[in-house]
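Usage

Read records sequentially. Each one opens with the input sequence:
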Amino acid sequence: MHLTRIRMYIAVNNAAKLITGMILLCTSTLGTKVLTDNLYNELFTNANYKPQLLPVCEVGISVNISLDIALRQIVSLEEKDQVLTTNIWVRMGWHDCRLRWNSSQHYHITELRVPYGEVWIPDIALYDSSAEEVMMPGMTDYRVQLEHTGEVRYNFPTVLKSICRVEVTYFPFDVQDCQLKLGSWSHSNADLDFYPQKDTGDLSEFVENNEWVVEKLKSARNVKTYGNETYTDITYHIEMRRRSAFYVMTMMFPCILVSFIAAVGFLLPPESGEKVSLEVTVLLSQAVFLLVVSDFLPPSAQNFPILGTYFAVSMMLVGLSLVLAVLVLNVHHRGDIPGKIVPKWSRTFFLEKLSMLCTRKKYRTSGNMNNVKRQCPTEHGVAYEMNSFNHNTRLTSLSENENSETNPQNLTNNNDILKEQLKELQAIRSHFLVDDTTEVEQEDWQRLARVLDRIFLCLYVLCFTIVTLVFVLQLTGGQDVT
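and closes with the structure output:
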């Protein structure tokens, strides 16, 4: 019996606590709601607040708007269309004399947040917007913060598409200065006056971009006159530096390598038949690189990228190497024409003076072809000596011996036979002399072609090195590359 009473007492006590808590909770909720309604009614309903009107309470006073932005992300920079897409946080603040209250009379409530359409908000616009539909998406989706002193703050995130004039001269080591020009579109300086909250924008929450490095975000207040009215705007300068490593490895390095390969064409022997085809292949590769650069960058009549100019000059050098390769082939096969000899000035300057320097082989002149001795194999494998003096000596000795041993009739027959043999030997000798002369002439033309190949190789490497150094110094020296 005693145990039952204790259990009933505990149950009643718990029920009483539960009911008391519910009453307190309902009372607290009802009190907060009433306080908010009373403050809201005092500011908007009873005061007949009109959000369409400027918060001007004195004559000759304009509304001062403090503006600040936080750059969250560089979404993209489309160089061809010259459009910059950014994700920013806009922060605005101003004073509304109609939204002040005594916090001590409202249970010390110092802040109140209301929907966007309940209070007056400046009609801020992006002057250089390239958005097709909504200029600042999300601007009307957030709440406005009110303070008991009349200060109003409105912060909202948005994505802006702005026009950015891209300077492509030093691509891919370029630095871009894109501007975000913010201000009122309908109110002049007499109604609204904009001031930056700080000299620089906020980069504390910036998300790094894969292609661009944001170095500075500066703000500047501008006052300009359009017609008869003066307007104030805040311009934010976004200074961005391109990450150049990707373009150096995928565009510059292959182009330099391909241009250097063109020099290999001067080392190929003309007999290979690949000199012209190699140069043509390199020239086509250069054209592809130039098309890639021109397609990537915006067309501009004011400036052209130095890299594109370098590709064009490289194409000219490769085209010149193609012409020189054809010239070398022409000289090499000039000896195939019978009777075509190397001009005297070419023999003196290229073969005698530059031959040792270019080919490391001393040039040996042919001399008098009548004194050339060659061992010419016959079909029996016997070597004939082709010196006319020795032939005449042998024939004279043979004739004298036979004169002493034979009769006059045999002598006449032998003389006829010897004359016929002498004619045949002279014909053979003339044939070999012509072959020797033609072969020597061919060797001279071929040697001249090799000398020209080495000279053209040195000139091409020298020109290519100078051009590459000049353009690289222009690219890296025109901007402060870190």
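Summary fields computed downstream for this record:
- The chain has eight helices and twelve strands.
- The helical segments are 2-45, 245-261, 275-296, 306-332, 344-353, 355-359, 388-405, 408-478.
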